[in-house]
Design goal:
globular, 17 strands, single chain, 5-stranded mixed β-sheet
Length: about 250
């Protein structure tokens, strides 16, 4: 019986070794390639910088701040629909070069789409910013947490407009939008025709200024609906801004 047990153990070991060899032959390690993800604001097809003045019909406008949380960013493989995670959360800040372009390493294969949420999911939104290291996008360092509400701002969009067409006069109107609510979190999937190689792939999230204020969630009058901090009195404005923002995005491969 003892001899038989030894023989059976040897047979099992040989079978396992063969299986491991076959697995190695069938599933070779996938090589990685660098990918950059950039966020850029546009008006009428032209890029806009923070603090840059531009015309919007009869108004002159300046965007002074645009910060947005993007969460659960993933790529969908073309071959088998498998999802590859890039990051759980990032804070895009159009005014800061280090927070405008982000760098990742991903499998050198083809991808058909990119998936992400705008804002933070319900679990993320409940987290305490003091528990994160300062370099984490949800830490106190970035000032995106409402201490009084115990939740996060999903976006900060601030600036000035002037109905007379010239900023810097007493008729300037400041605008400030801070949407942040669990009900505002929405996930998106957008087409992405990308084949990742050994060289850096450049993916841009283009943000159309006009659609933020004139989308299917409703028009926002920048002069009369110029403030929202997601309080009961201005909740409807924040809701229009955050959902229009989702429509304002286009994915470009450069």
């Amino acid at each position: 019986m003892k001899f038989r047990s030894i023989i059976l153990a040897l047979i099992a070991a040989i079978a396992l070794t063969n299986c491991e060899k076959q697995q190695c032959e069938c599933d070779p390690p996938v090589e990685k390639g660098p990918l950059s993800l950039k966020f850029q604001l546009y008006k009428d097809g032209a890029p806009i910088a923070i603090q840059q003045k531009f015309a919007d019909d009869s108004l002159e406008v300046m965007v002074e701040r645009l910060k947005v949380y993007f969460s659960h960013i993933k790529l969908r493989k073309s071959s088998n629909n498998t999802l590859v995670s890039l990051t759980d959360v990032l804070l895009a800040d159009i005014s800061d070069p280090e927070l405008t372009t982000f760098h990742f390493s991903t499998d050198r294969v083809g991808y058909s789409s990119i998936l992400f949420g705008i804002g933070l999911d319900a679990n993320q939104n409940q987290m305490d910013p003091a528990t994160f290291p300062l370099d984490h996008p949800m830490s106190t360092f970035y000032g995106m947490h409402w201490g009084w509400a115990g939740l996060y701002k999903f976006m900060e969009l601030q600036g000035r407009s002037n109905p007379d067409g010239q900023l810097g006069t007493p008729t300037d109107v400041a605008f400030s939008y801070h949407p942040g609510n669990d009900a505002f979190y929405k996930q998106y999937e957008m087409a992405l025709n990308l084949t990742q190689g050994e060289d850096t792939s450049h993916v841009e999230v283009a943000i159309d200024y006009d659609t933020i204020f004139k989308g299917s969630a409703g028009d926002v009058n920048i002069l009369t609906e110029n403030q929202s901090h997601t309080t009961p009195s201005d909740y409807h404005i924040a809701e229009k801004i955050i959902f229009n923002f989702g429509e304002a995005l286009t994915i470009l491969v450069k």
